């Protein structure tokens, strides 16, 4: 990944030697400073933009969003996600006057350097054609100034559609949005082509004038850059509602690709899952309880509930609110350190505070010895995920800080005995 820098050198404290302690070739992985990600949240006034933002990042309950007023102009907030990602979130008011301003006077200011556009459609809007026309203009401006931006379209308030009709309505709206997106791209491509032709004509006229005046030879020519033919929108669409887990599915997908060092996180999580013989592991961000990463074993892949990840986000967020209610602590505070659930002979599960900015959920086969061993091993793994709390400061921290571990390193070989796979000093297999 672009956020990682790998160097090779001699053995020593600066790195971990492919599974052993001591000399030999060393691979050291360092974290670079992560820039802020500019995220535009746009859509018609009343479509539910501020409500979903408040539920995800400010720990509002769905019923609490009824007291939120309309967003005036742009509500700019800096949302810290994990320790090394800051979302520069622009919640843009959807009134027509504001939309016209974004597309004219503030066009370059709003649409430059955008990493992600989240566009929200109200499924019950009575003026769909106008909504789509505005969307086309927004996409055109985005492609003009931030061609590489990702686009997430949320078809919102799906709870207002009868359950038996939701899939059909969603599929129809997706087809319509994709059609309008293609139209927006075509408009931008046509604009590039027209601009290119105009520049070519101007250059041709200048060359003729220079030739007549004898300043350049008739064979000298200049060419303008051709219009881009590969203009495509990286777009995903979701059906959402603030009253169920669909909101967490959409926002987890949005955040997933923005998380720095994601490949490292997934690799470390997979190693941990294999080591503790888990069926499934989920890593949650501490405040929002969005799923940052997950690992599933072959057995876990047989789970028929495809929406279980966002369901767990919703359940744990509700549990957190319940703890806040009965303890009198703020909703943004840490409400619990551990949560256990044992379903007889079917499975066992625990959720525990992992790093400063994360919780981890482990689901595994039943068995008290296996369960207790997994909890101890997860606790032992914490130092190897400390990079989730932010980029290390200084070479010592980047190198693992005297045995603390770092991204890209293998805890199972580097620290003999920390896990039951670590050798004769290990904890032993849970079932042994």
From TrEMBL:
It is found in: Cytoplasm. Pfam families: Gtr1_RagA. Keywords: Cytoplasm, GTP-binding, Nucleotide-binding. GO terms for biological process: cellular response to starvation; negative regulation of autophagy; positive regulation of TORC1 signaling. GO terms for molecular function: GTP binding; GTPase activity. Its main location: cytoplasm. It comes from the Eukaryota. Residues 1-35, 199-229 are annotated as: Disordered. InterPro entries: Gtr1_RagA, P-loop_NTPase, RagA/B. Residues 199-224 have a biased composition (Low complexity). GO terms for cellular component: fungal-type vacuole membrane; Gtr1-Gtr2 GTPase complex; nucleus. Residues 9-25 have a biased composition (Gly residues). Component of the GSE complex. GTPase involved in activation of the TORC1 signaling pathway, which promotes growth and represses autophagy in nutrient-rich conditions. Belongs to the GTR/RAG GTP-binding protein family. This is GTP-binding protein.
């Amino acid at each position: 990944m672009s956020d990682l820098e790998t160097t090779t050198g001699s053995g020593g404290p600066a790195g971990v030697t492919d599974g052993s302690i001591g000399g030999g070739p060393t691979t050291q992985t360092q974290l670079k400073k992560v820039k802020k990600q500019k995220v535009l949240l746009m859509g018609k006034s009343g479509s539910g933009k501020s409500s979903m933002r408040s539920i995800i990042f400010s720990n509002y309950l769905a019923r609490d969003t009824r007291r939120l007023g309309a967003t005036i102009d742009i509500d700019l907030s800096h949302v810290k996600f994990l320790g090394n990602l800051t979302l520069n979130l622009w919640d843009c008011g959807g009134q027509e006057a504001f939309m016209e301003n974004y597309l004219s006077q503030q066009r370059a200011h709003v649409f430059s350097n955008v990493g992600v556009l989240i566009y929200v459609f109200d499924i019950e809007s009575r003026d769909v054609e106008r909504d789509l026309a505005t969307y086309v203009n927004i996409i055109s401006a985005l492609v003009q100034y931030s061609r590489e931006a990702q686009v997430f379209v949320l078809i919102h308030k799906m709870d207002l559609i009868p359950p038996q009709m939701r899939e059909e309505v969603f599929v129809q709206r997706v087809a319509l949005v994709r059609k309008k997106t293609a139209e927006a791209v075509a408009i931008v491509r046509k604009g590039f082509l027209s601009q290119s032709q105009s520049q070519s004509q101007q250059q041709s006229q200048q060359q003729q004038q220079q030739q007549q005046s004898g300043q350049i030879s008739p064979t000298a020519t200049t060419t303008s850059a051709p219009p881009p033919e590969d203009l495509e929108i990286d777009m995903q669409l979701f059906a959402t509602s603030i009253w169920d887990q669909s909101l967490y599915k959409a926002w987890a997908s949005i955040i997933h690709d923005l998380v720095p060092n994601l490949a490292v996180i997934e690799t470390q999580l997979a190693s941990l899952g294999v080591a503790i013989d888990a069926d499934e592991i989920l890593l949650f961000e501490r405040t929002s309880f969005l799923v940052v990463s997950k690992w599933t074993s072959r057995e876990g892949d047989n789970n028929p509930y495809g929406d279980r990840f966002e369901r767990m986000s919703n359940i744990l967020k509700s549990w957190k609110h319940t703890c806040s209610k009965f303890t009198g602590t703020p909703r943004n505070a840490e409400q619990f350190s551990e949560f256990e659930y044992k379903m007889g002979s079917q499975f066992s599960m625990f959720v525990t505070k992992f790093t400063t900015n994360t919780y981890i959920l482990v689901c595994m086969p039943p068995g008290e010895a296996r369960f207790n061993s997994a909890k101890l091993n997860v606790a032992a793994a914490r130092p190897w995920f400390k990079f989730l709390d932010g980029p290390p400061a200084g070479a010592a921290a980047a190198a693992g800080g005297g045995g603390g571990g770092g991204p890209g390193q293998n805890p199972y070989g580097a620290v003999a005995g920390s896990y039951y796979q670590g050798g004769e000093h290990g904890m032993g297999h849970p079932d042994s």
